Amino acid sequence: MSCSIPQELIEQCIAFHGHSCPGLSIGIRAAEYAQARLNQDGDAVLVCVTETDMCGVDAIQFLTDCTVGKGNMIHRDYGKMAFSFFDRRTGAGVRLLLRPEARQDIDAALAPRQRAIRAGQATAEDEAAAAALRAQLQDRLMTLPLEELFAVQSLEDGLPRPAAILASLVCAACGEQTMESRTRRFGGQTLCIPCFNAREQKI
């Protein structure tokens, strides 16, 4: 079953991200699932917790209106291809984890060619093969049934708290205003994280 998002909207999403790629396709399909599962009436206030910072996050921001700036997109740097979505009205949530088998063995064929490209040692044949494999993977990601693409876990709790406006404190070292929750105490002084890291020798 192909992606149900209109092609025109997908093209707009690609333009927002800057290019079309397999990673963006994963985010498009995750957004598709979230909208179908949690936003059936169109009135959901969606929150996304992403466990990766890869290309697909742009698709989720564009298609679901979950953004870092609004506080309803939260990045947890776990390095997993996983996205949790919540409806803030009801607390209902779902976690999507990309199934390894969704990529088949395409990655194994693509990886050595990508390494050669990054090292500047790729031949024209390598580059053409890599482009064909990326297109093949992207097509697969955009056409697989969602239940074959993602392992799905229903979430009964874990809805993040709404974003809060916190006080700003002045860093004693650089003098810059810093959100209170991002300051550190060192030697009796309030420091921003970069200044704290510069003084704390164990980091």
Describe this structure in words.
By secondary structure, the chain is α+β, with helices and mostly antiparallel strands. The protein has two domains: 7-101 and 135-155, 2-Layer Sandwich (60s Ribosomal Protein L30, Chain: A), CATH 3.30.1330.130; 168-199, Wheat Germ Agglutinin (Isolectin 2), domain 1. Helices cover 40% and strands 20% of the residues. It has helices at 7-17, 22-38, 56-64, 106-118, 124-143, 146-149, 193-199; strands at 46-50, 73-75, 82-87, 93-98, 150-155, 168-170, 177-179, 183-186, 189-192. The strands form three sheets. A five-stranded mixed sheet has the order 2-1-3-4-5. Strands 6-7 form a two-stranded antiparallel sheet. Keywords: Metal-binding, Zinc, Zinc-finger. Residues 16-150 form the Formylmethanofuran dehydrogenase subunit E domain. Pfam families: FmdE, zf-dskA_traR.
Tell me the total number of β-strands.
9
Low-confidence stretches: none
CATH class of the largest domain: Alpha Beta
* Overall tally of structural domains: 2
Approximately how much beta-strand content do the residues carry?
15-25%
CATH architecture of the largest domain: 2-Layer Sandwich
Radius of gyration: 21 Å
Main sheet: strand order: 2-1-3-4-5
Pfam family, one: zf-dskA_traR
Keywords: Metal-binding, Zinc, Zinc-finger
GO molecular function, one term: zinc ion binding
Protein name: Putative formylmethanofuran dehydrogenase subunit E
